[in-house]
Design a protein that fits this description.
CATH architecture of the largest domain: 2-Layer Sandwich
Distance between the termini: 29 Å
CATH class of the largest domain: Alpha Beta
Order of helices and strands: EHEEHEEEEHHHHEEEEEE
Strand order of the largest sheet: 1-2-3-7-6-5-4
Bound molecules: biotinyl-5-AMP
Number of strands: 13
CATH superfamily of the largest domain: Bira Bifunctional Protein, Domain 2
Strand content: 25-35%
């Protein structure tokens, strides 16, 4: 069995850049140049910010947070599959730490990795992992958070589906305070994940999840699927219950649409559906 890594120091080293292609790409480059485990890469802007499945992450300068955290394995598989969930929960908690409960702004999570406020996407997560030879693995946890992005500066195609913390709160926020809070929460959560496994995390994540209990449409490699989103399993699979009583389990590559309303990302993703 792979030994669990000891508690890490996430963000002890922070590399800051005015602009990069993608902070996830920069994190892999930093890893190749010997950057230590836990290094954080932060950029003011990205030229080619990445979403999942080849999609783009709009990354203008001067307003948002673009962060990637480099983790050096080997890790148990449960840790790797839990990283997107950890990033979502840590970012949710960091936002709460900074704005306080009293602000009345509630961050929800849409499976698998969208952070949403009032049904609009405020942040996204992209975890990428690569083999580093033998049992070694590099995992990069990318977090994009719209902080002080005014609605008028958003591209037209995002105006109806995206938001920023400033738009929701009515005031701007200090990006460095948010960065510190995200790194702190992630460090704490990562230590707990390595020590205790992922059950607590799935519970925490499920508490904020807007997807569970809703009927969703999902595009899969074998055609469209509709069903009730029942639960997320510890391995990160979403369990969908169909009207005939059968169920499917879906991997995180899926893109889904909530009914009847919700942040309608286009259904362009194709996912693996494991029919029970
Ligand atoms: C994601 O992909 O939500 C993952 C985004 C991860 C971005 C971070 S930034 C730091 C790190 N470095 C990178 O290069 N990436 C990570 P996905 O679920 O595929 O969502 C992408 C979709 O969200 C796009 O197709 C748009 O519809 C929408 N979108 C793009 N930019 C957005 C933004 N800034 N805010 C809200 N929605 C956006």
């Amino acid at each position: 069995m792979t030994p669990l890594p000891a508690m890490r120091r996430i963000g002890e080293r922070i590399d800051r850049f005015p602009i990069v292609e993608s902070t996830n790409g920069s994190a892999f480059e930093a890893a190749a140049a010997g950057a230590p485990d836990g290094t954080a890469i932060v950029a003011d802007a990205q030229r080619a910010g990445r979403g999942r499945l080849g999609r783009d992450w709009n990354s203008p300068a001067g307003c948002n947070l673009y962060l990637s955290i480099l983790l050096r394995g080997p890790f148990p598989q449960t840790v790797v599959t839990a990283l997107p969930f950890l990033a979502a929960v840590a970012t949710r908690d960091a936002i709460r730490d900074v704005i306080g409960e009293a602000a009345g702004v509630i961050v929800h999570i849409k499976w698998p990795n969208d952070l949403i406020i009032n049904d609009r996407k405020v942040g996204g997560i992209l975890v990428e992992a690569r083999s580093a030879g033998g049992e070694s693995l590099l995992a990069v946890v990318g977090i994009g958070l719209n902080v002080n992005w005014p609605s008028h500066a958003m591209p037209d195609e995002l105006k109806a589906t995206a938001t920023s913390l400033e738009q929701e709160l009515g005031r701007s926020l200090d990006r460095s305070g948010l960065l510190t809070a995200v790194l702190h929460r992630f460090d704490h959560g990562f230590g707990r994940l390595c020590k205790e496994g992922a059950m607590w995390l799935i519970d925490e994540w499920s508490r904020s999840c807007r997807t569970l209990g809703q009927t969703v449409d999902i595009e899969t490699s074998s055609g469209p699927l509709t069903g009730l989103a029942e639960a997320v399993e510890p391995g990160g699979l979403l369990r969908l219950r169909h009207t005939d009583g059968s169920s499917s389990r879906l991997s995180v590559e899926a893109t889904l649409r909530l009914r009847p309303s919700g942040p309608h990302s286009p259904i362009t993703g194709v996912t693996r559906a494991l029919r029970d």
